[in-house]
Design brief:
Layout (H helix, E strand, L loop, with lengths): L16 H4 L2 H6 L8 H13 L10 H27 L2 H12 L3 H41 L6 H5 L1 H32 L5 H39 L29 H9 L4 H7 L9 E5 L7 H15 L6 E6 L8 H10 L4 E6 L6 H7 L1 H20 L8 E7 L1 H9 L3 H7 L3 E4 L6 H8 L18 E4 L2 H4 L11 E4 L5 H4 L10 H4 L16 H12 L12 H12 L6 H12 L1
Parallel strand pairs: 1-3, 2-3, 2-4, 4-5, 5-7, 6-7
Helix pairs in contact: 3-4, 3-6, 4-8, 4-22, 8-9, 12-15, 13-23, 13-24, 15-16
């Protein structure tokens, strides 16, 4: 009997299993999955590490935010590591051998309990770390004389951090789900090769996220914030009224309309030491009314026009005939630390002039993110306009020109003098307070500090030209010559604005490597990703601690001016007399 030859296999018969899967099966594979065990383990670790001490104490709500974000990042790191290891042949063989050594019956019994055991371990670890964290926070707050949190209050952070982490993880899974759908669409409908489809899908999702965040969420949020703070800029602080003295901007004789000064500008020109205060602080000097010039964002269109108007206003008030002329670079909202300016005014019996211009409505932290270039433009324009007027006067008939900036104001002020040589050539002294980590001159000086000196208390060129201090004793350190003009940075070791930077994400900075401590003597340890978020939330807390800590420098500013611009013959008794007037 003759056998019938077998028919040639069709293409469908030889198709690979993956090709044989109907298109709809791809969609069914996108069903929700339980949490990844490695992601949960690493996420829990990151959440616990985020409870370790940082620079400043924080409450349970901030701890929930820090740990929740850190847990979500840790979950992503864990999932990525598990995925990467699956593609390492040696790791796959190791797992296979380990699985072969476990009896199948045991695996069947243990597997259903694995998730419950992991969840229980995670809850226990979080609870134990929250208890330890509450103890650390009590030590920090007690050292500062602040109210201490109870363990019960602190435990409230646990459920909230889980919700926050879950929200971020679900958002990440949503993006993964969208990417997989695009991937399958490209493969099934457009016949893209598998690897190419995956790359294109990832790129499309990435572009979508960037557009959504930058052009939709952030843009609209910034417009809304700008509008809201612009309205706030029109509202006065309590007790502020228009000055009548011709030495003040906004007065009836002023070139700058009162209504255009803005909220912070109106307060700055309306306040200041009284004649009695000046006489009490400098009894041997005939007191004069200090000059305060301010130009608001609504006073002129551009930075150059505001600077020119400020220079005209200085000339109108007779500022160039005063003993001291102070260039102030404001923070984002136009705020000027009145106590810092008043300390200088009291020291010199009011024979001073201070000038500032506004460049933004936004608060300092938001301005730092989106308006730093405007701060630089404003400071450079003001310095150029004032220096031009001073240069036109005889060399022996010029005021001492000082520069001052706090926080973001120090950043803007620095950009007007881009090097130590420029500072010494164009000013008679500089006081910069709480400099952000991104300040270019500050950063370069700290990087080139004398060997053996720490980043938190650096010494540059044996203290000959520039110094860094967090308390009065450090101003005199080292006890060597300090040439004029003097440059002084005031910076607390616990000020997160000084030490925060994006490099914290993946690298340990010198100040942490050298054994930095937070308030209460708490030792800080750097952890990738985690420490960045700890200090990010410390930024929000930087002003919520007592003076002399964090980003509060009022008590130290007087000592800074005494070091930089004290009148001839100044004594410690003079300093204490001014301090008493400021305190009163």
């Amino acid at each position: 009997m003759t056998e019938t030859p077998a028919a040639a296999p069709s293409r469908a018969d030889t198709a690979s299993p993956a090709d044989a899967v109907p298109a709809r099966a791809g969609w069914r594979r996108l069903r929700p999955r339980p949490p990844h065990p490695v992601g949960v383990a690493v996420g829990t670790l990151f959440a616990c590490l985020a409870m370790t001490p940082s620079l400043l104490p924080r409450d349970w709500l901030f701890q929930a935010l820090v740990s929740g974000i850190s847990a979500a990042l840790g979950y992503g790191v864990g999932v990525f590591l598990a995925w990467a290891l699956r593609h390492v042949p040696a790791w796959r063989r190791l797992l296979a051998r380990a699985a072969d050594r476990v009896p199948a019956a045991w695996r069947a019994r243990v597997r259903p309990l694995g998730g419950a055991l992991l969840a229980s371990a995670a809850v226990l670890a979080l609870a134990l770390m929250l208890v330890a964290g509450s103890r650390w926070q009590r030590e920090m707050t007690s050292a500062l004389g602040m109210p201490s949190p109870s363990t019960g209050d602190w435990l409230r952070a646990g459920p909230l951090l889980v919700v926050i982490a879950a929200g971020f993880v679900l958002a990440g899974r949503g993006l993964w789900w969208l990417g997989r759908r695009i991937d399958l669409l490209l493969q099934r409908r457009l016949r893209f090769p598998r690897h190419l489809a995956g790359g294109v899908a990832a790129a499309l999702v990435g572009v979508l996220v960037l557009v959504l965040v930058n052009d939709v969420l952030l843009a609209r949020a910034l417009r809304a914030a700008d509008a809201a703070f612009a309205v706030a800029n029109t509202r006065d602080h309590a007790g502020v009224s228009r000055p009548e003295a011709l030495e003040r901007s906004g007065s009836p004789e002023s070139f700058v309309p009162w209504d255009s000064l803005g909220r912070e500008g109106r307060r700055f020109v309306a306040e200041g030491p009284s004649a009695e205060d000046l006489a009490a602080a400098a009894p041997d000097v005939e007191p004069v009314e200090p000059i305060r010039v301010y130009v608001g964002l609504d006073s002129a269109e551009t930075a150059e026009e505001r600077a020119a108007l400020a220079a005209d206003e200085l000339a109108r008030t007779g500022a160039f005939d005063r003993e001291v002329l102070l260039l102030v670079t404001t923070t984002g909202s136009g705020w000027v630390n009145g106590s810092a300016v008043e300390a200088l005014e009291l020291m010199h019996g009011g024979d001073t002039a201070a000038v500032a211009t506004q460049y933004s409505y936004l608060p300092s932290w938001l301005s730092f993110l989106v308006d730093r270039s405007r701060a630089a433009d404003e400071a450079q324009a003001l310095a150029a306009a004032v220096e031009e007027r001073i240069a036109a006067r005889p060399a022996d008939d010029r005021p001492l020109l000082l520069a001052y900036g706090e926080s973001l104001g120090s950043y803007g002020s620095e950009t007007a003098y881009p090097s130590l040589a420029a500072i010494r050539e164009r000013t008679d002294g500089v006081l910069w307070v709480g400099p952000p980590n991104s300040n270019p001159v500050w950063h370069a000086l700290v990087e080139r500090r004398d060997p053996g000196t720490p980043a938190t208390a650096p010494v540059y060129a044996s203290g000959l030209l520039v110094r860094f201090a967090g308390d009065p004793a450090q101003i005199a350190t080292p006890p060597t010559a300090w040439e004029e003009p003097r440059v002084l940075y005031l910076q607390h070791a616990s000020d997160p604005i000084v030490w925060w930077g994006p490099d914290l994400l993946l690298s340990e900075p010198d100040w942490l490597r050298e054994g930095a401590t937070g308030e209460g003597g708490m030792t800080l340890t750097w952890y990738p990703l985690v420490t960045f978020w700890q200090l990010t939330f410390d930024l929000v807390n930087s002003k919520s601690v007592p003076d002399g800590h964090g980003h509060n420098y009022d008590a130290l500013t007087l000592d800074g001016w005494v070091a930089v611009a004290a009148p001839d013959g100044w004594t410690d008794a003079d300093t204490e007399r001014v301090r008493a007037v400021l305190a009163d």
